[in-house]
Every structure is written in structure tokens, then in C-alpha cells.
Amino acid sequence: MIKLYGHPLSDYATKLKIALLEKNIDFEEIKQYPSRESDYVKFSYTGRIPVIETENGVLGESSAILEFIEEEFPAIPLLPENKFERARIRQVGSIIENYIDLPARKVYAKYVAGKEFDSNDIESARIEIERAIEALNSLNCFESYAASKQFSFADCIALAIIPLVNDYLEVLTDIKVISELNNFANYYERIMSEKTYMGRIEKQRKLLQKAIARVRK
Q: Is the pTM of this model over 0.90?
């Protein structure tokens, strides 16, 4: 059985959890924080999360893990056969990770660490996020699923990252995410009703919202 090491509030761990749940793969979830302690670094190679432990060994880096899951468990595919559609799905996932999540971390990672963030951090994040939202809207994302007519890598990424970023930024800044993404609110509501396992993901989101509110006070 796969063991998934990560924190319940880590969006990169959550995207893997969604993929595993969508594919009906049995896995054990083990709570783990990033750590530079020698035992964990030796185990995980980098000290980061998430990592998975398989019968073949330990694998890190969420994008590599997602590819492994797809190839190892092909019965319920998260990528179509068409090469262009596969590339488009990866494109959308990359936009969300690199131009929504990473810029947002300039603000919320400091907040979580108890450090001050300033207007320059917010404006830098705003520019990147607004450009990413414009790109996703131009690509007509979330009309059916995130990047295609089937549930894919892009959905795992979007469902893990966008609500988390939105929940942080609506408390910490005036940057809008979900309200500016065409179709996302309806898409999210539909996925919640289609996928019973999303109740687990929504429960994590509620915990995050409570944590943000608690620390903000």
C-alpha cells in the first residue's frame, strides 16, 4: 500500500490525495511536516513534503509523484490519449502552480511563519495572479472540468490550490481569486456533488479556514 507523507493543509499533498482518491487507490496518510532532521532528510532526500513510500522505494516532488501514480495505476486515467490535450492539461496545471500558488506564497507563507508581509509582497503577488487568472479565463478553463472534458491532473491541482489560495488571500489582502475565475464557483459546487471523496477535502478546507481566523486574531 502507498504511504503518503504530508500535512493535511499542504496543497501539494492534497493534489496527490485527490488523484489517489479519484483512482480508488488504497493509501495510508501519514502526517508529516517539512523537516531538516537527519532521519527524515535521509528518508525523503530533501526534507520536503509530500513524499510517497511504495514497494519500489520513496519518491518526492509532487509532479513526479503524480506522473508515477498515473503510470502505475492506469485503470482510471487522469490524462487523455491525445498528446495535445495531455500537454494542455499540464499547461493549465503549471499556470495554477507557478503563477497562482507560488506568488500567493509570498504573502501567506510569511503569515504562517509569523513574519510581516508588506504592500510590495501583495502587489507582486497581485500582478502574477491576475495575469494567471486572465490566462485561465482565456483558455476557457472550468467550463466542464479544469482543462478538458474529463477529470485530469489539472483538476487535482486546481481543487487543491485555488480554494486554499483564495481562503488565505481574502483574509490577508484584497486580491480576488475564485470570484474572478470564470466558471470556477459553479465547477467547484458540481465537483463537490459528483465526487463523494471531496467531502474529505472540504473538511480540510474548513480546518484551514479556522486556522487562518485563529492566527489572524
A: yes
Q: Which of 44, 72, 100 is the last residue of a domain?
A: 72
106 and 59 in a single domain? The answer is no
CATH of the domain at 153: 1.20.1050.10
Angle between the N-to-C axes of helices 184-194 and 198-216, in degrees from 0 to 180, rounded to the nearest 10: 130
Q: Does 87 reside within a domain?
A: yes
Q: Is residue 112 part of a domain?
A: yes
Asked if residues 195 and 131 have their Cβ atoms less than 8 Å apart, the reply is no
pLDDT digits (tens, 9 = 90+) for 121-176: 999 999 999 999 999 999 999 999 999 999 999 999 999 999 999 999 999 999 99
How is 45-112 classified by DSSP, letter by letter? Answer: SSS-S-EEEETTEEEESHHHHHHHHHHH-TTS-SS-S-HHHHHHHHHHHHHHIIIIIHHHHHHHHHHH
